Amino acid sequence: MEKEQLTDHTKLNENNLKFFPEGKPLILTDLSGKTVYKNEKFADLFGGSIEDINSDPNLKILLQNIVENKYKNFNFEINAAKLNSQRMLPYKIDLEIVEIEDKSYFLILFTSYREREEIAARINNLNNALEYGDVPVMIVNEETRITYVSRAFEKILGKGLEKIYNAFLTDVLTEFLDEREKEKLESALHDDSVWQKTISDLSENGELWYKELKLNPIKRGEFENTDFILTAHDITHHIVKNRLIKKSEQRQKLIIENISDPLLIIRREKEDLIFDDANDNFFVDFSLNKKNTKGEPLSDIVPSVLYSKIRMAIDRVKDYPEQQMQFRYSSSRNLREYLCKLSFAETLYEKTEMFIISLMDITEQLKTERMLRLAYEKETRLNKLKSAFLANMSHEIRTPLNAVVGYSDLLEDEIESENFEDLDYLVKAMKDGVDRLLLLIDNIVEVSMLESGEYKIELAKVIVNDLLKAEADTIVTKLAQKSIAIDMDLKEDISPVYLDPNKLEKVLTEILDNAIKYNRENGIILMRSYENEEGVIIEITDTGIGIETDRLRDIVEPFSRVEDEGYRRRFEGAGLGFTIAYKITNLMNGKIEIDSMPNEGTTVRLIFPPFMKKNETKQSD
Predict the structure, then answer these.
(1) pTM of the entire structure?
(2) Cα–Cα distance between 595 and 540 in angstroms, integer?
């Protein structure tokens, strides 16, 4: 205990006396030996005062001699017995006379030799541990000079004790420090603060090692000078391991980035799914920023639909032997289709599970498959149409040819027998057969031209009502043959249309032929014309057999006959008429709509945009 420590306390009250340490027996007396303060350790061993101590020599007499000889400090040994014991034990006495408020006091500290021996043994054991236990330790005093260094530290520094002991720490470490690090060390020594530095060198075997130096200040008392302990920890394995891990992570990152498909890595901690990493393609496809994703909840990063699918797959993946699952995801953001493959990855941490998800973009693949499927369906339909065409052509060609041959034989017989009464009928029948055959050939040629793109359209301004009236006049005979009535509802003041009148006549002929052919006896055909926001409308409605809705698209295919095929037919015709009407209408910038119900009839609707010259506007009524 220093004098200055006591003089900081101007009054010897209870609170101030608590300042004295309790580690060893200590007593404070006046110069007559009267107790002013004692710590608990002293009271437990010897009682309450100097008079209570059974010692040899007598401690009170020794104090009187010290006063008479005016000693300030005195160290001596005595034998003293503990309370209620006659056994004498050796103690070292550290005595000092201190001045407090101009009054002198004895400060007496007792140290038993057994305690000193135990401390010495502990110090010796510690020294042996440091020397032979390969523990790098260095002690530096308040002057920053080295007062102790272990052999292990000598090996690290590559210097003997003679070059290290009592040298300044910064000089000893100078080969490991640049100017900036040297300044940091000097600042730490000056400020009594912690300093840390990693150094490296080659061992005697030429192997690279890394040591972490750490300087810690040590202060035994509030008013004592500060020493320092410098330790060195071998972190070679840690650094090498981290470098290997980093290199492995870099290699893994390189592999991930070179995968063309978007790749996502997530981890599950308890029940939470956390975004861990992803390659650049994933961030691009999902418009994400790398800086704002790692370590965030997955539900905050990916779309909710994808999150739900991932969550469901993760909950089930361990039930599969390969621990892999596949699922489909349709992105509404970029309109892409993904085939997602989720794999479970084993980890070293039991509480963390890792999952890798690759998202293969199969949009083009699906389009190709769809196109192939449609092409296959079309090919199948064309094959079916081809078969129907061959059957139809066989019938449509044979029928008029047989009629011509048969009637020619009859005509020959009638001429030989000079029976001229039926000649007109036979010639007319032969002519009908030839006309029917020519019409078939003309239709085949016309369809071929429409398909090849060589069909000529000559557009002109046309009033559709005039064409409808003219066309109605041409089918009077055909209507009479089946007792079919025709009604007309033609709106006046309809805008002219811009089309080919001859081709429109062809379209109307084909539609009216079907309306007659598939109508019932005593049926009705209604021809209408009107105008609305779509344009000029022509409607032809019959009361015939009708067509199922799901087969309406088939009637625009060449040689298609939706009501029957081959030789099992109720109606004549090659199935080309509506195809021709449909294609010609499209070439004239019009469109055809069909409404039909089986056994209720059919309505064919032609829609044409009204004719308008350049810079001309339609006048209102």
Answers:
(1) 0.37
(2) 11
